[in-house]
Specification:
Layout: H1 3-10, E1 15-16, E2 19-20, H2 23-31, E3 35-39, H3 42-45, H4 58-61, H5 67-73, E4 77-83, H6 91-114, E5 119-121, H7 125-133, E6 137-144, H8 155-161, E7 164-168, H9 192-204, E8 207-209, H10 215-224, E9 230-231, H11 248-256, E10 260-263, H12 267-270, H13 277-289, H14 298-314, H15 322-336, E11 341-343, H16 363-371, H17 376-396
Parallel strand pairs: 3-4, 4-6, 5-6, 6-7, 7-8, 9-10, 10-11
Antiparallel strand pairs: 1-2
Helix pairs in contact: 2-16, 13-14
Signal peptide: 1-17
GO molecular function: metallodipeptidase activity
Pfam families: Peptidase_M19 (PF01244)
């Protein structure tokens, strides 16, 4: 199917509530380099029998990214995250985290190597542009939760040699490196080991990511880093006062030092939620039962999502929609300016709102941005230009 026929075929799919993507916008979106800074798709890559080359349905298996939907939504690629669930901070726990992280890294590299006509590893901004021009999908590698490095921070060099270009130190819980935004302070920011890791990343030219980090970690990393930093999937605390979001003052500080905030589509962070301890307890029990996602069979995956849906129905919480996502995005664009904002929707990691459920629907965001008055160059920067610039600046300040 040629590109014109593809665009015509997609048009009926892209009516979204009161947002209709025009043919001109769809053509523009498909022409732009569109990258997402936080893809948790490696979580689905580990599922037995799951094939990224085939089209899936998020309503059936929860997945939101695969090659057919990337093509439909004009997603050229992004940062595939080596995510490691935070485990016990013991010798055994650190050993498990180290093995888990390397296994995830290997799986990402394996998908690239098995599908050289469809995917290619990117190490630089120029790589991303070249790969997309070749019609392939761009795979950068990032890390979410640096617990795999707790036992030996020098492992960062190994990850770097294998393609790691972005590093986030912490996730939902504190670790040996830093305090989380969603846990009680332990280190009052970065630990000594965390400070060392920041400096190691700077020397290698690895882009530092403050998403999930506490305010104190943000402040210390911004002051300590010799290069601009990124919040790869964070939203606005002014719009919704969740500790995972950034306040306007810090967004301005991030931009003033050349950094970028990439807006997520994780509903729990976008709108206020009513505390429901019983729901949290049920979800924790479900997570404990299905902890090792990589070992689940297709039947177990189906059971997991069915039970999750049952819990969500029993303890219903409101879900954010496209309007709310755009409220966060447009507010941050106003605060930081269009040269310091991008999109990291947290696909396959809990992201997705009503009206923007998977990557096939991304053109609606371009339409909304154009409708809000942003021009083609600004939209191009939001989709990839700002992300690639901050990566390039981190690499330019490396000290090999």
């Amino acid at each position: 199917m040629n590109k014109r026929l593809l665009l015509l075929a997609l048009l009926p799919l892209l009516a979204n509530a009161d947002t209709v993507v025009s043919p001109a916008t769809l053509a523009l979106h498909q022409r732009l380099l569109v990258l997402d800074s936080h893809l948790d798709t490696p979580l689905t890559l580990t599922r037995p029998g799951w094939n990224i080359l085939e089209r899936h349905d998020y309503r059936q298996d929860g997945s939101q990214v695969d090659l057919p939907r990337m093509r439909e939504g004009g997603l050229d690629g992004g940062f595939f995250a080596v995510y490691t669930p935070q485990g016990p901070r013991t010798e055994e726990g650190r050993a498990y985290a180290s093995a888990y992280g390397l296994a995830t890294l290997t799986r990402i590299r394996d998908v690239i190597d098995r599908n050289p006509d469809s995917f290619a590893l990117a190490l630089t901004a120029d790589d991303a542009r070249r790969i997309a021009a070749e019609g392939k999908r761009v795979v950068f590698i990032s890390m979410e939760n640096a617990d795999p490095l707790s036992s030996d921070p020098a492992l960062l060099n190994t990850y770097y040699r294998q393609g790691l270009r972005m590093l986030g130190l912490v996730h939902f819980m504190n670790n040996d490196l830093a305090d989380s935004a969603t846990a009680l302070p332990e280190w009052k920011g970065l630990s000594p080991k965390g400070r060392d890791l920041v400096q190691r990343a700077n020397r290698l030219g690895i882009l530092l990511d403050v998403s999930h980090a506490s305010d104190a970690v943000f402040d210390q990393m911004l002051a300590l880093s010799s290069a601009p930093i990124i919040a790869s999937h964070s939203s606005s605390r002014a719009v919704n006062p969740h500790p995972r979001n950034l306040d306007d003052a810090r967004v301005r500080q991030l931009a003033a030092k050349g950094g970028v905030i990439q807006v997520n589509a994780y509903s729990d962070y976008l709108i206020p939620l009513t505390p429901k301890p019983e729901r949290n307890k049920a979800m924790a029990a479900l997570g404990a039962r299905f902890h090792n996602l990589a070992a689940l069979s297709p039947e177990q995956i189906k059971d997991l999502y069915q039970e999750r849906d049952t819990i969500n129905q029993r303890f219903a919480q409101p879900k954010a929609d496209l309007d709310v996502f755009m409220q966060h995005l447009l507010h941050l664009l106003e605060v930081a300016g269009p040269d310091h904002v991008g999109i990291g929707a947290d696909w396959d990691g809990g992201g997705g709102v009503s009206g923007l459920e998977d990557v096939s629907q991304l053109p609606v965001v371009t339409q909304r941005l154009l409708d809000a008055g942003y021009n083609e160059q600004q939209v191009a920067n939001i989709w990839s230009g700002n992300l690639l610039r901050v990566l390039q600046e981190a690499q330019a300040r490396a000290q090999p």
